[in-house]
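seq as requested:
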Amino acid sequence: MRTDARAHHDPAVRGFASDNYAGAHPEVLAAIALANGGHQIAYGEDDYTEHLQRVMHSHFGAGAEAFPVFNGTGANVTALQALTDRWGAVVCAESAHINVDEGGAPERMAGLKLLTVATPDGKLTPELIDRQAWGWEDEHRAMPQVVSITQNTELGTVYTPAEIKAICDHAHERGMKVHLDGARISNAAASLDVPMRTFTNAVGVDVLSFGGTKNGMLFGEAIVVLNPDAVRQMKHIRKMSMQLASKMRFVSVQLEALLAKDLWLRNARHSNAMARRLAEGVRQVDGVEILHEVQANAVFARLPHDVGERLQKRYRFYFWDEGAGDVRWMCSFDTTEDDVDGFLMALKEEMAR
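struct tokens:
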């Protein structure tokens, strides 16, 4: 029996739950189609993965090496394995994605220990790091070997280059390495209006998890090794971590589509601008509080719980802290002004009920 391909969803439905909800950018889809012809060597020996290295050099310097992977958790787990010994630990913010949103994968799959620190805004500082960076010679304690930061953070805040440099200098002085989870690195660069190298290799970050899926890719991320002396056997660890794509050209060509020109920046600037538009509108609604400075594409707010529940029936989004009524609204590369304005109207209507 013949069945025709058809859409199983209503493309007109919009939401503010996650930038992962958005589809792929048309330029990314076109790049995948371009790479689809003929045969290419598998497991990363293809022309697209080779060219990706040169593209990454233009952003992160000639010493950078990119290792495409399937997803963000895979990038983080693989990177942290390559940075730590079996007895090693990673210092991170309590709110870090590796701690609260990866199903325990860093500890279960990588065999390392996360040492978390509570932060008011999702950002670590040298002083906060020192709450967990101690006891290197104590065999009863996992050894702190890595500091992992997220740019921008899970709370939508953005580190300045100076703040990251202070963290890197502090960590390196203590013999520790620095990993940056850059799931939304493009949004951070757009917010700061600086090249990505300004707050990565230029200030001492050793390894970067580069995010593409949240910024218009169909799937895929990359581990970017900025300091080759900081890691061991990344290729072998990637394979052991089930992150080696056989048809890697289809990950690499998407990263190339984002990074070879300015698509990464256009997409990020747009999603950031939509978040600012949303936040400006929310500030005009009595009874709704913006919780964190809106610096990227996320808006965190507090509103009456029953209002949030009713609003969820009209637009998809997530409660961040259900008990407090805290919510997170995310904007994407394809969020429109009409989407934002429609949501604000719905919010005002529900608050007035």
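Residues 263-282 form the longest helix (20 residues).
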